[in-house]
Design brief:
The structure holds 2 protein chains of 2 kinds. Chain A is mostly helical. Helix content of chain A is 67%, strand content 3%. Chain B has helices at residues 2-34, 39-47, and strands at 64-69, 80-85, 89-96, 100-104, 109-113, 118-124, 129-135, 140-148. The chains are: A mainly alpha, B alpha/beta.
């Protein structure tokens, strides 16, 4: 019996744990950088005002116009269709089926990685948004009026997306925990069920409303997209200062839960094989002793630890927020909670890069190699002549992976600190109070970053 | 000021936690070699070490790890563990009570073993990382191979 991370089902190799000396260096750099940041902080907000530069009208029209929207939407719907079809009809070998790698690696990791640089890339390709908008346009053409929608309950905010995020990772990591991970067929059925649910919600509340608040993938990928340098406003493509769009992301209730869920689920996936292995095994054996079946015990154990991770991560953030509240002139707790949520986006991204960067590099070789030519894994199809290609595991050395892992956590930490410092200057115009409030966010971020380093050093330990 | 004491507290806590983690991590590493899944295999490996001595330095001398698969298709004593440095030779043999295909993931080596038969693997450790060898039909892990840089 062992607790296996997502990577296990797909990849034939796992990362070596970060050696102790590199861990110590990483943690030391984090601390030094943090104190330097406190001392050298700027005195008026730098990221809060949108300083964007619109790109040329021709470029905007070509990339954002209706033809481009239709093409991108069709591509999204087509690829989702291929993945679902491969999942239903293709091989049950997880690593040979297009569905798993495409959905859980290419999309689930690729959109955050690239959106964080370039801006929200998922929105144009979102298959449900495309279908929803097409249905809305059809309705308008026939009925002669825009479809009527229910008012979205404002208090729900992004909570449906946060819970959905936990559910996706639960499905990915916990549900398939029978030893080989989730199987392609279950993935395809889940994708279909999610499509029905999403289209129903879009019909009820409106396409854009649901994408902004409830649609898991739009909210999650869009969150990382706020770090990127391209955005749109009023149909114009614009270049913006990196990270600056993140400052307006967390205005909707429940946003903090989304970013915390992201950190928690990545932590859980990383820790289940390393840091948490012993307590998880104890709990698992306790469930087995109580007479639960092996699979039930495994799932119960993993579910509990995943929720514990979420609770732990949320508690650290809540303590930081409480601490900031104690600084004179602080806004309300609720305002602080949403007000600093965006400062954790770089940390969530750093966790993703640290834990899945190598998986992404290796598995994309399969995606654009044998999975592209033989999506069903039948062994008889060879669409592009790459069906017999393999994965070259030598493209990344263990040292290269370690340095990327530690560097991503340190860089994420620094960007998070910058955003937090900036936001504090908005809430506390007095520079000294702003800095005092940031001792608390600094503690939160040092905790997250060192925990992230610790998880890497304990992987498979 | 108040904030100064707060920051001092935070620093002390973080330093303490980091020290704790580094130290416990070191202990873990030390403990791992002795509490590995398959002490039997290690012993067997040492016993047969005198065999293929090719005058290499002590550290690079390949040991043959012996893995025994019982009639339930499970490795006796749990999956074996082999840790080598990149460039070393990986050597192990599998004595199986059941007919199976043995697959070393990552290196993508496969060999069939008949019921009651023994197959041996010898290959250079060229790819860094953690890999497993499985009885492919049963998806049963019999070996964890760690190749360190």
């Amino acid at each position: 019996m062992s607790f296996l991370p997502l990577a296990h089902a797909l990849s034939a190799r796992e990362d070596l744990p970060v050696p102790a000396w590199l861990f110590a260096w990483g943690a030391s750099i984090v601390l030094i950088v943090s104190f330097f940041a406190l001392a050298a902080g700027w005195r008026s907000p730098r990221f809060e005002q949108w300083r964007e530069r619109p790109l040329g009208a021709g470029v905007s029209r070509a990339l954002l116009g209706l033809p481009a929207q239709i093409v991108c939407g069709l591509v999204g719907v087509f690829l989702l269709g291929v993945a679902v079809y491969a999942g239903l009809e293709g091989t049950e070998a997880p690593d040979r089926n297009f569905a798993l790698t495409f959905l859980f690696v290419t999309c689930w990791l690729g959109f955050p990685f690239f959106s964080a640089i370039l801006g929200d890339l998922f929105r144009p390709f979102n298959p449900w948004r495309a279908v929803g908008r097409a249905a809305g346009a059809g309705f308008q053409a026939i009925a002669g009026q825009r479809p009527a929608h229910l008012a979205y309950p404002e208090r729900l905010g992004r909570w449906p997306a946060a819970i959905g995020l936990l559910a996706v990772v639960w499905l990915e990591v916990v549900y398939g925990a029978g030893g080989i991970g989730i199987d392609p067929h279950t993935t395809a059925v889940a994708a279909l069920a999610y499509s029905v649910y999403t289209l129903a919600m879009m019909a009820a509340f409106g396409v854009e409303e649901w994408c902004e608040r409830g649609e898991v993938f739009s909210v999650y990928f869009g969150m990382f997209g706020r770090l990127g340098i391209f955005g749109t406003r009023d149909g114009r493509l614009e270049r913006r200062r990196p990270f600056s769009a993140a400052t307006t992301w967390a205005t909707i209730p429940g946003s903090a839960a989304v970013v915390l869920a992201s950190i928690a689920t990545t932590s859980f996936d990383g820790a289940s094989e390393g840091a948490f292995q012993d307590p998880m095994e104890s709990l698992y054996e306790w469930f087995v002793d109580q007479g639960a079946s092996l699979t039930t015990s495994l799932r119960l154990t993993e579910t509990i630890f995943m929720l514990l991770c979420f609770a732990g991560v949320a508690l650290v953030y809540a303590l930081g927020v409480r601490g900031m509240r104690s600084v004179p002139g602080a806004p309300s707790l609720a305002k602080l909670r949403t007000g600093f949520a965006h400062t954790l986006i770089p940390i969530a991204l750093a966790y993703l890069v640290a834990h899945y960067f190598s998986l992404f590099v290796f598995q994309e070789q399969a995606q654009f190699g044998y999975l592209l030519s033989d999506p069903l894994g039948t062994g008889t199809t060879d669409l592009f002549g790459t069906a017999s290609s393999g994965i070259d595991f030598k493209v990344l050395s263990a040292n290269a992976i370690w340095y990327v892992q530690v560097a991503s956590l340190v860089v994420g930490h620094v960007i998070g600190l910058m955003l937090a410092h900036d936001r504090a200057l908005v809430y506390w115009p007095d520079y000294r109070r702003a800095t005092a409030s940031q001792y608390w966010m600094l503690a939160v971020m040092v905790a997250f970053t060192c925990f992230g380093l610790y998880l890497l050093s304990q992987a498979n330990g | 000021m108040n904030a100064r004491t707060a920051i001092l507290g935070v620093v002390l806590v973080v330093v303490a936690v980091v020290l704790l983690i580094v130290l416990s991590g070191g202990e873990d590493d030390g403990g791992e070699t002795t509490t590995g899944g398959n002490a039997v295999a290690n012993e067997a490996g040492k016993a047969s070490k005198e065999g293929g001595d090719q005058g290499k330095p002590e550290a690079a001398k390949p040991e043959v790890t012996a893995i025994v698969v019982d009639e339930n298709g499970e490795p006796v004593g749990g999956p074996a563990e082999i840790t080598v440095d990149k460039g070393d030779e990986v050597r192990f043999e599998v004595k199986s009570a059941v007919a199976e295909e043995i697959h070393v993931h990552g290196y993508d080596l496969t060999k069939d073993v008949p019921a009651g038969g023994t197959v041996s693997f010898t290959f250079p450790a060229e790819i860094e990382g953690i890999f497993e060898a499985e009885l492919e039909g049963r998806a049963e892990q019999i070996l964890e191979l760690r190749v360190e840089p």
